[in-house]
Design brief:
Number of domains: 2
Number of helices: 7
Largest sheet: 3 strands, antiparallel
Number of strands: 5
Distance between the termini: 82 Å
Radius of gyration: 24 Å
Helix content: 40-55%
């Protein structure tokens, strides 16, 4: 009886150890090696460097509030230590607002954001505002905005930087990223990279 059980346990232990080594050590090392060789920038976080210092990642949004900067999507993320305190673009605590489309709180938030954008960008009271400027993404960390969301901000940014709208628009269009593989998603603009490009122009 004991011998029969041992004959079943030993192969199970061997298989467990073999799978642990194969899938817990060798496979991750192989994938890491391929990623570092083929996609080193992406594998290391798609970091954005300026003047020798890491200032962010092209995969994680940042909050820009000044008139001279393009603004990203709203971020509903909160502090890890105090969930009642808003902390936009907190990468330690990503998540959406969990408010449904018919939720009165979301409707009020969107209406308030629309009014604020029309005011700060000098738009008419009936001007259409791109939806991604007034609603958060599922992660709350979206680094990109639609082309329409970028173009609607061009006049404000141009005024604040004392540049012509045509020049700012040209910078926007030069930073448009097409659909993934030409098929998936919509063209977008990375807000951090766009703002850095403008900083280089108007330092």
């Amino acid at each position: 009886m004991v011998r029969c059980i041992w004959e079943q346990v030993v192969p199970a232990i061997r298989l467990t150890l073999a799978m642990a080594v194969l899938l817990g050590i060798l496979y991750p090392l192989a994938i890491t090696g391929v990623a570092q060789a083929a996609f080193p920038r992406q594998a290391n976080g798609s970091l954005v460097v300026r003047d020798g210092h890491v200032i962010g990642s092209s995969l994680i949004g940042q909050q820009f509030t000044g008139a001279r900067y393009f603004h990203g999507r709203p971020s509903p993320t909160v502090s890890v230590s105090n969930p009642q305190r808003a902390q936009p673009y907190n990468a330690e605590n990503s998540g959406g607002s969990n408010l449904g489309p018919s939720d009165p709180a979301l409707i009020r938030q969107v209406a308030s954001r629309v009014a604020a954008i029309r005011r700060q960008d000098g738009l008419g009271s009936d001007a259409r505002v791109p939806v991604d400027l007034v609603t958060a993404s599922g992660s709350g960390l979206d680094p990109d905005i639609s082309v329409a969301a970028a173009l609607i901000q061009v006049p404000r940014v141009a005024r604040a930087r004392h540049l012509s709208p045509a020049r700012v628009r040209a910078v926007v269009m030069s930073h448009v990223q097409g659909r993934i593989l030409g098929l998936f998603g919509e063209p977008v603009v990375n807000v951090l990279e766009l703002n850095l490009a403008l900083d280089r122009i108007s330092r």
